Amino acid sequence: MIGRIRGVLASKSPPWVLVEAGGVGYELEVPMSTLYDLPELGREVTLFVHYAHKEDTVALYGFLREAERTQFRNLLRVSGIGAKIALSVLSGASTDEFARLVQTGDITALTRVPGIGKKTAERIVVELRDRVAVVGAVASGGALAVPRDAQSEALTALQQLGYKPVEAQRLIRETQTPGDSAEALIRKALKAALGGGN
Protein backbone atom coordinates (compact mmCIF):
# COMPACT_ATOMS: atom_id res chain seq x y z
CA MET A 1 0.00 0.00 0.00
CA ILE A 2 1.21 3.52 -0.79
CA GLY A 3 1.21 5.90 2.19
CA ARG A 4 3.28 8.81 0.96
CA ILE A 5 4.82 10.03 -2.29
CA ARG A 6 7.73 12.42 -2.68
CA GLY A 7 8.65 13.54 -6.15
CA VAL A 8 8.49 16.29 -8.75
CA LEU A 9 5.17 17.97 -9.46
CA ALA A 10 4.80 17.37 -13.21
CA SER A 11 1.30 18.70 -13.90
CA LYS A 12 -1.83 20.15 -12.32
CA SER A 13 -5.27 19.72 -13.85
CA PRO A 14 -7.82 20.21 -11.07
CA PRO A 15 -8.65 18.02 -9.29
CA TRP A 16 -5.78 15.87 -10.65
CA VAL A 17 -2.03 16.19 -10.19
CA LEU A 18 0.82 14.14 -11.60
CA VAL A 19 3.85 13.49 -9.40
CA GLU A 20 6.97 11.84 -10.90
CA ALA A 21 8.84 9.71 -8.38
CA GLY A 22 11.50 7.12 -9.15
CA GLY A 23 10.78 7.22 -12.88
CA VAL A 24 7.04 6.63 -12.40
CA GLY A 25 4.30 9.22 -12.84
CA TYR A 26 1.63 8.90 -10.15
CA GLU A 27 -1.75 10.46 -10.91
CA LEU A 28 -3.55 11.53 -7.75
CA GLU A 29 -6.87 13.20 -7.14
CA VAL A 30 -6.52 15.99 -4.59
CA PRO A 31 -8.91 18.31 -2.75
CA MET A 32 -8.76 21.98 -3.68
CA SER A 33 -7.29 22.75 -0.25
CA THR A 34 -4.20 20.79 -1.29
CA LEU A 35 -4.19 22.21 -4.80
CA TYR A 36 -4.07 25.79 -3.47
CA ASP A 37 -0.83 25.15 -1.60
CA LEU A 38 1.10 23.08 -4.14
CA PRO A 39 4.47 24.41 -5.30
CA GLU A 40 5.15 25.48 -8.87
CA LEU A 41 5.49 22.81 -11.56
CA GLY A 42 8.93 21.21 -11.56
CA ARG A 43 9.35 21.58 -7.80
CA GLU A 44 9.53 18.73 -5.30
CA VAL A 45 6.37 17.89 -3.38
CA THR A 46 5.46 15.36 -0.69
CA LEU A 47 1.89 14.10 -0.51
CA PHE A 48 0.21 11.86 2.03
CA VAL A 49 -1.67 9.21 0.08
CA HIS A 50 -4.90 7.31 0.54
CA TYR A 51 -4.77 4.16 -1.58
CA ALA A 52 -8.16 2.85 -2.69
CA HIS A 53 -8.52 -0.52 -4.37
CA LYS A 54 -11.87 -1.54 -5.79
CA GLU A 55 -12.82 -4.57 -7.86
CA ASP A 56 -11.40 -3.32 -11.14
CA THR A 57 -9.68 -0.01 -10.33
CA VAL A 58 -7.02 1.53 -8.14
CA ALA A 59 -7.24 5.17 -7.13
CA LEU A 60 -4.76 7.41 -5.34
CA TYR A 61 -5.83 10.46 -3.35
CA GLY A 62 -3.19 12.98 -2.29
CA PHE A 63 -3.05 15.43 0.61
CA LEU A 64 -0.43 17.95 1.67
CA ARG A 65 -1.39 17.60 5.32
CA GLU A 66 -1.94 14.50 7.44
CA ALA A 67 -5.00 16.15 9.01
CA GLU A 68 -6.68 16.29 5.59
CA ARG A 69 -6.05 12.63 4.92
CA THR A 70 -7.41 11.74 8.36
CA GLN A 71 -10.55 13.78 7.72
CA PHE A 72 -10.96 12.15 4.29
CA ARG A 73 -10.73 8.69 5.85
CA ASN A 74 -13.16 9.64 8.63
CA LEU A 75 -15.68 10.84 6.05
CA LEU A 76 -15.38 7.59 4.09
CA ARG A 77 -16.52 5.74 7.22
CA VAL A 78 -19.83 7.60 7.19
CA SER A 79 -22.61 5.67 5.48
CA GLY A 80 -23.51 7.18 2.11
CA ILE A 81 -20.25 9.09 1.62
CA GLY A 82 -17.76 8.13 -1.07
CA ALA A 83 -14.47 9.64 -2.19
CA LYS A 84 -16.09 12.28 -4.42
CA ILE A 85 -18.19 13.75 -1.62
CA ALA A 86 -15.31 13.51 0.87
CA LEU A 87 -13.11 15.51 -1.53
CA SER A 88 -15.89 18.08 -1.96
CA VAL A 89 -16.06 18.55 1.80
CA LEU A 90 -12.29 19.05 2.02
CA SER A 91 -12.38 21.38 -0.96
CA GLY A 92 -15.08 23.56 0.54
CA ALA A 93 -13.81 23.89 4.11
CA SER A 94 -10.52 23.61 5.94
CA THR A 95 -10.18 20.86 8.52
CA ASP A 96 -10.74 23.48 11.24
CA GLU A 97 -13.87 24.86 9.57
CA PHE A 98 -15.25 21.36 9.05
CA ALA A 99 -14.59 20.47 12.68
CA ARG A 100 -16.50 23.57 13.81
CA LEU A 101 -19.44 22.73 11.53
CA VAL A 102 -19.59 19.19 12.94
CA GLN A 103 -19.11 20.18 16.57
CA THR A 104 -21.78 22.90 16.36
CA GLY A 105 -24.10 20.62 14.38
CA ASP A 106 -24.42 23.08 11.47
CA ILE A 107 -26.54 20.87 9.22
CA THR A 108 -27.47 23.76 6.90
CA ALA A 109 -23.84 24.54 6.01
CA LEU A 110 -23.00 20.87 5.49
CA THR A 111 -25.91 20.40 3.06
CA ARG A 112 -24.39 23.08 0.79
CA VAL A 113 -21.73 20.54 -0.21
CA PRO A 114 -22.78 18.70 -3.42
CA GLY A 115 -24.07 15.22 -2.66
CA ILE A 116 -24.82 15.86 1.01
CA GLY A 117 -28.50 15.94 1.93
CA LYS A 118 -29.98 16.58 5.34
CA LYS A 119 -29.86 12.94 6.46
CA THR A 120 -26.23 12.52 5.39
CA ALA A 121 -25.30 15.79 7.12
CA GLU A 122 -26.97 14.53 10.30
CA ARG A 123 -25.03 11.24 10.06
CA ILE A 124 -21.79 13.19 9.65
CA VAL A 125 -22.49 15.18 12.81
CA VAL A 126 -23.49 12.12 14.84
CA GLU A 127 -20.69 9.83 13.64
CA LEU A 128 -17.81 12.33 13.49
CA ARG A 129 -18.47 14.72 16.36
CA ASP A 130 -16.09 12.79 18.62
CA ARG A 131 -13.47 12.25 15.90
CA VAL A 132 -12.91 15.75 14.57
CA ALA A 133 -10.87 18.40 16.33
CA VAL A 134 -9.79 21.91 15.51
CA VAL A 135 -6.12 21.50 14.67
CA GLY A 136 -5.20 24.80 13.05
CA ALA A 137 -4.82 23.45 9.52
CA VAL A 138 -6.17 26.41 7.57
CA ALA A 139 -5.58 26.38 3.82
CA SER A 140 -3.99 29.43 2.25
CA GLY A 141 -3.56 30.27 -1.40
CA GLY A 142 -0.19 30.64 -3.03
CA ALA A 143 0.93 32.87 -5.87
CA LEU A 144 0.37 30.74 -8.94
CA ALA A 145 0.58 31.60 -12.60
CA VAL A 146 -2.73 32.54 -14.17
CA PRO A 147 -3.72 29.90 -16.74
CA ARG A 148 -4.75 31.15 -20.17
CA ASP A 149 -8.30 30.02 -19.51
CA ALA A 150 -8.65 30.01 -15.75
CA GLN A 151 -12.45 30.20 -15.87
CA SER A 152 -12.80 27.03 -17.96
CA GLU A 153 -10.38 25.19 -15.69
CA ALA A 154 -12.33 26.30 -12.62
CA LEU A 155 -15.66 25.32 -14.21
CA THR A 156 -14.34 21.85 -15.01
CA ALA A 157 -13.00 21.36 -11.49
CA LEU A 158 -16.26 22.47 -9.86
CA GLN A 159 -18.26 20.11 -12.07
CA GLN A 160 -15.94 17.23 -11.16
CA LEU A 161 -16.65 18.05 -7.52
CA GLY A 162 -20.37 17.56 -8.17
CA TYR A 163 -21.69 21.02 -8.98
CA LYS A 164 -24.06 21.30 -11.93
CA PRO A 165 -22.72 23.40 -14.84
CA VAL A 166 -25.23 26.21 -14.30
CA GLU A 167 -24.48 26.35 -10.57
CA ALA A 168 -20.70 26.31 -11.18
CA GLN A 169 -21.01 29.16 -13.69
CA ARG A 170 -23.14 31.18 -11.28
CA LEU A 171 -20.68 30.73 -8.41
CA ILE A 172 -17.75 31.82 -10.56
CA ARG A 173 -19.63 34.75 -12.10
CA GLU A 174 -20.63 36.06 -8.67
CA THR A 175 -17.21 35.75 -7.04
CA GLN A 176 -14.56 36.31 -9.71
CA THR A 177 -12.39 39.38 -10.03
CA PRO A 178 -10.09 40.26 -12.97
CA GLY A 179 -6.82 38.32 -12.98
CA ASP A 180 -8.02 35.45 -10.74
CA SER A 181 -6.18 32.17 -11.27
CA ALA A 182 -8.17 28.95 -11.59
CA GLU A 183 -7.25 28.07 -8.00
CA ALA A 184 -8.50 31.46 -6.77
CA LEU A 185 -11.74 31.09 -8.71
CA ILE A 186 -12.33 27.61 -7.30
CA ARG A 187 -11.52 28.68 -3.74
CA LYS A 188 -13.85 31.68 -3.85
CA ALA A 189 -16.66 29.73 -5.50
CA LEU A 190 -16.44 26.92 -2.91
CA LYS A 191 -16.32 29.42 -0.06
CA ALA A 192 -19.42 31.13 -1.43
CA ALA A 193 -21.22 27.79 -1.88
CA LEU A 194 -20.49 26.59 1.65
CA GLY A 195 -20.93 29.93 3.37
CA GLY A 196 -23.84 31.15 1.28
CA GLY A 197 -21.98 34.32 0.32
CA ASN A 198 -18.68 35.77 -0.93
How do the helices and strands follow one another from N- to C-terminus?
EEEHEEHHHHHHHH
Instruction: Name the CATH architecture of the largest domain.
Output: Orthogonal Bundle
Which structural category do the helix and sheet elements fall into? alpha+beta
H/I helix tally: 9
Please explain how this structure is put together.
- By secondary structure, the chain is α+β, with helices and mostly antiparallel strands.
- It is built from 9 helices and 5 strands, in the order E-E-E-H-E-E-H-H-H-H-H-H-H-H.
- The protein has helices spanning 32-36, 66-76, 83-92, 95-103, 107-110, 118-128, 150-160, 165-175, 182-195, and strands at residues 4-13, 16-21, 24-29, 44-53, 58-63.
- The chain has a 5-stranded antiparallel beta sheet, with helices on one face.
- Helix 2 crosses helix 3 (83-92), helix 7 (150-160) crosses helix 8 and helix 7 packs across helix 9.
